[in-house]
Each structure stands twice: as structure tokens, then as C-alpha cells.
Amino acid sequence: MFLIWTVSILLLLASLIYAIANARIAVRWYVWRIRASLIPFVGGLSGAIGVMLLPVDAVWRFWWIPPVADIGCAALLASIVVAAARRWLARNRKF
Question: How many domains does the structure of the chain reveal?
Fold first, then answer.
């Protein structure tokens, strides 16, 4: 039980660190025009796994919060969906 708690907390801590780093990079990008690259998926995935491993009843239902809260994961997922939709619409236009 101690090992599960330790791994969960370490994964959630890593997720928090990556989410803060991605938010900092995004602010620097849009406010000061200092270009940098986001760290995609690492924070969101580690947070989702950390939440699912927590030995607390019904907390696994909130596995989606870390990927949505991490801008590196949420923004990348949104851009992938938009790009796929654009490609699909471009291929399937009938006019």
C-alpha cells in the first residue's frame, strides 16, 4: 500500500511540475514572444496514471483532469483534433 501511495504521489508531483513548466512556457510565448517548445503529453499522462493508481475509492473517475489542466497535453490534443477535422473536411468536400 505504501508503494502505491508513493508512486501515485510521485507521478502527480511530476505532472504538477510539467504543467507549471508548460504554463510558464506558454506565458513566455504569448506575453514576451520568447519562443520555446512545450513538453507534450508527459505531464498529462503521468497525472492521469497517478490519479488512477491512487488507492482511494472513486477517485479514478477524475483521471481526465491532469491532461486537461496541462496546457502541453490539452493544447496538443486540441490541435491534433482540429488538424484531423480539417484534413477530413478537405478530403470529403463534394463541391
Answer: 1
